[in-house]
Design a protein that fits this description.
Blueprint lengths: L2 H30 L2 H7 L5 H15 L2 H13 L5 H14 L2 H6 L9 H4 L3 H18 L3 H27 L6 H9 L3 H15 L2 H13 L6 H14 L2 H6 L5 H32 L1 H4 L5 H19 L3 H11 L23 H28 L6 H29 L5 H37 L5 H27 L2 H5 L1 H24 L5 H33 L4 H9 L3 H13 L4
Helix pairs in contact: 1-9, 2-19, 3-5, 4-5, 4-15, 5-15, 5-17, 8-9, 9-12, 11-13, 12-13, 13-15, 13-17, 15-17, 15-18, 19-20, 19-21, 19-22, 20-21, 21-25, 22-24, 22-25, 24-25, 24-27
């Protein structure tokens, strides 16, 4: 037998398996979109619900390591608390065993047609052909993602078949049987499972290799397999440990808690297995194990570990906090720490969180401008300092969020997530500019207050009407962005046109008063500056509203959209007339 050929085929099968797993899990996550992040936000103090959520998310992503890395990122970014993650980790450990049950299909040997079609060599080519057809001929993103899942699963199962075929000749070799004797030592088996999984960073791949040996008739017994399965459960923590490097203390605790759960479970249940198995089930544990047996042991280990530790969740939290203590000198709080690079491993989660941050920018911009407009009625130095601070914050948000979104846009994302990224990138510049206009209005209000100037009674009434229109368009823009409401966004542009008309009319009226000597030139300069800022504010609101509408339409062409709604659009004209009457200067 050519050992080199066996090794090359085994490695090739492993490569196929890992690639198929990556393609499948990436597409599943893409299909889930921001639902994963929203689901994690629903994690409560109820352990059972958290366990179900953790299991469901891991089944969707086909990786407990990916779920744990996501938890590290979410805790590091302040979205979740460390205490909330323990039950989710329990669920993730159970959910990751689902892959093992899928792999048991490789062990089907029945000739009955309804079972034969479940054999990988039968359904994999059909699944791959169906997936390729969906990818090539479908225009809908969801169908393309489903097709990619089919292809990924077919490649994964092909890799499994290759590994099984590669190791089959080993069953008849004497030297391999001698090696298997060493695996009767539970500590040796535990270490092999741990190291192999830590190197390839996939417990599913280790399970697949173990199943390949078991299904090929090489003589893998329960006594050999159980310690390996316990070891691979510890080895899968390597990914989360690597991901916590450079994170805050609470995020490090997530990774450490994950390791502790696995180690405590492995030590306890391996001890039980050695004692009980050796005393009462010596002949049973020496029987050959099959694929179903491996999947069952993997699932049973994680369920039993959860049942063992869930009553001790609080002590586990305190122990983790003792092992990973807070730094004596805390680093300055980073208000943008939620833009965690680790979340890029779960693009849909990162997109959802960026969207939430952009909503926060929308709220800050609105509140800052409303505070600035109020300065013309009641000048307040304390409000002025807040306006400046918020404007600086909006500048930082735009810079950091824009850079993060550029990185995120290079990841594998769904078409819908791509549209959301485009919406955010189109909008955050407008939010930042709205912050600038708040400062400009503050300067105007400060000059009026400092010099003791005032509007004429007529101008004051006119500016009050315009200010109310600005308040409404700001609120409407914020609400349509917050709720992603295209119908509300459609009402922004008609109001923007009314504001343009108001500013032009007020300028004309001011010139007329100036010619009659009813208004000072100095006050006229300030009024003109305020009107220009109000007009630009409404323009930025229009830009944001169009971005919301274009996400709903699935295309970004602001000029084409605005041209279409302004000319010959009956609904637009009706809304315009309503606002025109509401904010009439007559």
């Amino acid at each position: 037998m050519d050992i080199l050929q066996v090794a090359v085929t085994l490695i090739g099968g492993l490569v196929f398996f890992l690639f198929g797993m990556r393609v499948m899990s990436g597409s599943l996550e893409k299909m889930a979109g921001g639902k994963l992040e929203n689901t994690l936000r629903k994690v409560t103090s109820k352990p059972f619900l958290s366990i179900l959520l953790g299991a469901g998310i891991t089944i969707a992503m086909q990786s407990s390591s990916a779920t744990t890395v996501m938890l590290v990122g979410l805790v590091n970014s302040g979205i979740m608390q460390f205490e909330q993650t323990i039950s989710v980790i329990f669920g993730a450990n159970i959910g990751t065993t689902f892959t093992g049950w899928l792999l048991t299909l490789s062990g089907i040997s029945s000739d009955r047609w309804y079972l034969a079609i479940l054999k990988p060599e039968v359904f994999s080519p059909i699944l791959a052909l169906t997936g390729i057809g969906m990818i090539m001929f479908s225009k809908k993103d969801r169908r393309i993602s489903i097709g990619t899942v089919f292809v990924g699963f077919a490649v994964l199962m092909q890799g499994m078949t290759m590994m099984k075929d590669a190791v089959s000749p080993l069953a008849e070799t004497s030297w391999f049987k001698e090696i298997l004797v060493q695996f009767k030592n539970p500590i040796f088996g535990l270490l092999i499972g741990l190291l192999l999984t830590a190197v390839i960073q996939s417990s599913a791949a280790t399970i697949a290799i173990l199943m390949s040996f078991a299904l090929s008739g090489t003589g893998i017994t329960y006594q050999m397999a159980i310690p390996i399965i316990m070891g691979l459960n510890i080895g899968t923590c390597a990914t989360s440990l690597i991901s916590c490097i450079g994170t805050e203390t609470k995020a490090k605790r997530v990774a450490v808690a994950h390791v502790m759960v696995k180690i405590i479970g492995a030590v306890f249940w391996l001890s039980v297995f050695v004692l009980v198995g050796g005393l009462f089930f010596e002949k049973a544990v020496e029987k050959p194990i099959n694929g179903v047996g491996i999947a069952a042991v993997h699932t049973a280990f994680n369920i039993l570990t959860t049942l063992l530790l869930i009553p001790f969740t609080k002590p586990l939290v305190r122990l983790t906090e003792f092992l990973v203590r807070d730094n004596a000198q805390k680093e300055p709080e980073d208000e943008l720490k939620w833009l965690d690079e680790r979340l890029l491993r779960s693009p849909s989660v990162a997109v959802a969180e960026c969207n939430n941050i952009s909503k926060q920018m929308a709220r800050l911009a609105k509140e800052n401008l409303l505070a600035a407009i109020d300065l013309f009625d009641h000048f307040d130095e304390e409000a002025v300092s807040k306006i400046k601070a918020v404007e600086d914050k909006l500048d930082r948000y735009e810079d950091r969020l824009g850079t993060y979104l550029v990185k995120l846009s290079m990841m594998s994302i769904s078409a819908q997530d791509g549209r959301v990224i485009s919406k955010i990138l189109h909008s955050i510049g407008d939010f930042e500019r709205l912050g600038d206009h708040a400062v400009n209005l503050y300067y105007a209000a400060s000059e009026i207050n400092r010099k003791g100037l005032s509007f004429t009674p007529v101008a004051k009434v006119e500016m009050g009407i315009l200010a109310n229109a600005i308040r409404e368009i700001l609120t409407m823009t914020h609400d349509c962005y917050e709720e992603a409401d295209p119908e509300l966004a459609f009402r922004v542009e008609p109001l923007e046109q009314v504001i343009d008309k108001l500013t032009a009319t007020i300028k004309t009226n001011h010139i007329a008063r100036l010619q009659k000597g009813g208004c000072s030139i100095e006050m006229g300069f300030i009024l003109s500056d305020i009107l220009n800022n109000y007009k630009r504010i409404s323009d930025h609101c229009s830009n944001v509203a169009v971005a919301v509408i274009e996400v709903d339409r699935g295309a970004f062409d602001t000029h084409e959209y605005l041209s279409g709604v302004k000319f010959g659009n009956l609904e637009f004209n009706q809304i315009y007339d309503t606002f025109d009457k509401k904010y009439s200067l007559e």
